[in-house]
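Lab channel / #folding
Pinned by the channel admin:
"Please post every new chain as: sequence first, then the structure tokens as a reply. Keep commentary short and put observations after the output so the thread stays searchable."

First post following the new format, from NK:
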Amino acid sequence: MRKKKAVVLFSGGLDSTTALCWALARGYDCRAISFDYGQRHSRENKAARKIAGLLKVRLYEVKLSFPWLAVSSLVNPGVELPDTEFSRIGSGAIPSTYVPGRNLVFASIGVSLADSIGAAAVVSGPNVVDYSGYPDCRPAFYRALEKAANAGTRIGATGGKIRFLTPLVRLSKAAIVRLGLRLKAPLSLTWSCYRGGRIPCGHCDSCKLRARGFAEAGLTDPALKAGASAGRRGPC
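Reply from TO:
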């Protein structure tokens, strides 16, 4: 029996790597897409390349050029990354790391690939439990995307359906870590830090959420060990 195809929106981070491994474990024939949209660093894209190669998943690398995204501190190194107290992450105003329309653009490109190859699903790793409060991570957003995708694609117009699958959306970061380990996801290769560098900064929202997830799961983050070892080898 031929496997159903899935398109995975893939950053090389903890969440999207776990989502990719979840889709593979569900029996999907996966294609992954990573994006270069002018981020402050290339660490996550390098991680995506390495992980996709290890898992033998075809990776499409898409380069986007949207100059107006410089309003985000995730893109513009001239905008300071927030160092938010953990208890306040996700509870206040939308942070400067929000990239306007990013997940909408990513999802649209994912739908384009899905419609081209006859994929049954677009898989991604948003989360609304341990997250920074981005509006494009919420379940209502993905429900609306699925409706739009099926109203405006060949698959939808010919009686098929493209599903948006967000398996991590209601999980805590600790639960995501545990799921990744159960799925034998290569978590040591993932990169989550907004700042880049040899080892995670430990101060950005993403670092703090990831650290709490591993701590609550009773584990040491393997990426920290790998980064520390790399740091001892000296500059590239």
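NK: The two ends are 47 Å apart (CA to CA).
TO: also worth noting, The chain has one domain: 5-232.
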